[in-house]
Amino acid sequence: MVEKKLDKGLVFSGVQPTGNLHLGNYLGAIKNWVNLQKEKPCIFCIVDLHAITVAENRFKLKENTLEVAAAYISSGIDPKKSKIFIQSNVSGHSELAWILSCHTPIGWLNRMTQFKDKAGKNKEKAPLGLYSYPVLMAADILLYKSGYVPVGEDQKQHLELSRDIAQSFNRFHDVDFFPIPEPLIMGLATRVMSLKDGTKKMSKSDPSDYSRINMTDNTDDIRKKIQKAKTDSLPFPDNSENLESRPEINNLFNIFCSMSEMNRDKIIKEYSGKDFKKFKEDLFEVINSEISKVSVEMQKLLSDKGYLEDLLKVGAEEAREIAENNIREIKKIINFYNL
Ligand code: AQP
After folding, report:
1. pLDDT tens digits, 42-75
2. How many whole angstroms from 143 Cα to the centroid of ligand 1?
3. Is 201 labeled as catalytic in the residue annotation?
């Protein structure tokens, strides 16, 4: 549950349809949205324009898009309460991205670590879209004048940039049009790490399937992956202080806390000094009891493509209505001719 009072307008967030949705996306993002929709109007987008910033993601765009829609609904997002739609179906996202790019100094983009990570050594050959990705993200949020953006830790820097861009627009035009969006970094697993390397983020693009629990994994997959998850040769710790120096253990411990909703000290008391066999068995149980249900429900929804498509169409119509109104206002503020 969100503890602070949310009085700054609606909630916006999204997931890229890039396949391999995983436990990080679930715990760091989607699961938290289910509670938020009880308190606020929410918009949950499938951000396909972001996905095409990486060329390989274009191959399975349609099926990955439906997979995200199925994941949202199977996790408990209610399409009657929250708007669920595909980003490219609402043209205001691209239109506002251009406008906001004219309010974004290149120096701000040069600081973005995600671009540096994804472009790697080949930054001269990286597409412009990958570089300007955070401007499109600012447009996604500001198009709906959203006040809150629930995301995992990894998106914090992009969100800070969205705030700067909103302020820059407001200041330049001397208006108070865009609310300054706040990140909501929620839950106990805001940065879920790879099961094979506790210093690396659990990620869709990791070539090893054993690095992550996928939201479509069945019971057997989950069992195998937890059994094989990297630990170390020391016993389970007797306090949470030295966990930072044991990244794999820290990660499994955080996943356990988050999924079981058990108190940290209670978990430590239960397993302290023991080897990891029993802990892993119990970790498997808590993950499996939740994720395998989501996975089964996802398969069911994915077998009814028409249902998902209809729902996304309605979501896009509703989103378009808000977006078009706001774009009209923004154009007035800029002083564009509107003939
Ligand atoms: N490991 C993670 N822990 C916690 N939260 C995470 N999120 C992603 N990975 C983790 C959160 O999930 C939401 C949707 O993310 P996205 O669709 O933008 O995907 P991503 O962050 O690009 O996911 P990956 O797995 O890291 O993809 P690749 O490998 O392509 O880079 C966001 O709220 C994000 O914070």
Report:
1. 999 999 999 999 999 999 999 999 999 999 999 9
2. 22
3. yes
| Exposure string for 74-106, b = 16+ CB within 10 A, e = fewer | bbebebeebbbbbbbbbebbebbbebbbebbee
In the chain, the domains with their CATH numbers are: 11-190+304-334 (3.40.50.620), 209-300 (1.10.240.10)
38 token code pair: 């009880």
Amino acid in the structure at residue 319: A
Find where tokens 């040769």 sit: 233
Q: CA separation (Å) from 233 to 37, 199, 228, 309?
A: 43, 17, 14, 49
- Written as one letter, the residue type at 316 is A
What is the longest distance spanned by two Cα atoms in the chain? 74
Check 8, 60, 118, 305 and give the catalytic one: 118
29 Cβ below 6 A of ligand 1: yes
Give the Å distance between the CA of 30 and the centre of ligand 1.
11
Inter-residue contact 216 to 21 (CB < 8 Å): yes
* Ligand 1 site-directed mutation target among 146, 204, 209, 215, most atoms within 8 Å of CB: 204
Distance 191 CA to ligand 1 centre (A): 9
List 183's β-bridge partners, or say none: 149
- Among 60, 133, 201, 254, the mutation site with the greatest number of ligand 1 atoms within 8 A of its Cβ is 201
SS3 11: strand
pLDDT above 70: residue 83: yes
Nearest protein CA to atom 34 of ligand 1, as residue: 152
pTM equals: 0.94
